[in-house]
Amino acid sequence: MATTFVIACPECEKQVKVSDEHVGKKVRCKGCGHIFPVQAPGDAPRGAAKTAIPPGARKTQATGSAPPPPPPAAESEQSGYKFVDDDYDPNKYTVTEDESTLPRCPFCAHEMSSHDARICLNCGYDTIKRTRPEVKQVYGHTFGELFLWWLPAIMCILTMIGMLVWYLFFWGLIEEWLDESLFMDEKGPPTTYLAGMSPGMFRLYHALLIVFLSVPLVRFTYKRLVKNYKPPETKIKDELFR
Predict the structure, then answer these.
(1) Please, are residues 192 and 185 in contact by the beta-carbon 8 Å criterion?
(2) Strand 81-84 to 192-193 pairing
(3) Sign of the CA dihedral 195, 201, 205, 210?
(4) Three-state secondary structure along 48-65?
(5) Distance between alpha carbon 122 and the CA centroid of its chain, in Å?
(6) What span, in angstroms and rounded, lies between the C-alpha atoms of 237 and 42?
(7) What is the CA angle 104-109-113, rounded to 5?
(8) Quick check: 9 and 32 in contact, CB under 8 A?
(9) Where are the beta strands (DSSP E) in the chain?
(10) Which residue has the higher pLDDT, 182 or 205?
């Protein structure tokens, strides 16, 4: 019949009863979690707990009756110890980092296409700018809307063409206009004018005036026909889809 003896945890010195059939197996202390092998009382190191006889066993020895059966394994576990396998690994079910796992989008938690991906293909989130493109439903532009949007730029172009034609017209008639005018000093040759009011001076200042007026017209035409060639979009109201 199996005999029982008392062992103590080498870490916290918590005691428990075990039987000789558990010798050589490993147990884990429920008090501190330390794992150690079960040794027979003769093999126990110094300072270990000696074999103790329970009070009930002393009464049976005094009366001459048979000793009680050893406690089952479940009772040993309730006393503070649990038997474990020799191949016990505490890190067997811990979460470890896998380098092959792709990063996830901070916005929709969907896997990115690669480790170096910047834009999420699922929701369009930009991981660098931390922005997401706005998705909205708008009406399509008609030809009438486009024409009205381009009309101011077309008027600017016609205005610049008109100023150029006027300058060519002015270039040929300025001498005739100054002839017999108050600006003429003496009629040639050579013809002189008061205060330098010659046809060349009028042509120069007239060209500078046309250039000065053409700069804002060219800038507006570029923005309207090249940079922003479409009118503002009209968003469809959400009430239409409810």
Answers:
(1) yes
(2) unpaired
(3) positive
(4) CCCCCCCHHHHHHHHHCC
(5) 13
(6) 89
(7) 40
(8) yes
(9) 4-8, 15-19, 26-29, 35-37, 81-84, 184-186, 192-193
(10) 205
Q: How far apart are the first and last CA of the chain?
A: 82
Say how far apart CA 80 and CA 234 lie, in whole Å.
Answer: 74
In the block, which residue shows the tokens 């999420």? Answer: 120
Distance set, CA 106 to CA 9, 99, 121, 132, 223 (Å): 48, 18, 13, 11, 37
Q: Please give the structure tokens belonging to residue 140.
A: 């399509």
3-state SS of the chain: helix, strand, coil percent to 5?
A: 40, 15, 50
Nearest to 74 by CA among 16, 132, 24, 118: 16
* CB 26, CB 37: distance < 8 Å: yes
Closest CA to 198 of 210, 186, 213: 186
Give the C-alpha distances (Å, rounded to integers) separating 43 from 2, 10, 40. Answer: 17, 14, 5
- Cβ(178)–Cβ(203) under 8 Å? no
Q: What is the mean pLDDT of residues 131-139?
A: 80
**Residue 95 above 70 pLDDT?**
no
Question: Is beta strand 4-8 parallel, antiparallel or unpaired with respect to 15-19?
Answer: antiparallel
**Cβ(167)–Cβ(212) under 8 Å?**
no
| Residue among 87, 122, 128 at smallest CA distance from 102 | 122
Which residue is listed with tokens 């000793």? 67
User: In this model, does residue 70 exceed pLDDT 70?
Assistant: no
If you average pLDDT over residues 104-122, what whole number do you get? Answer: 88
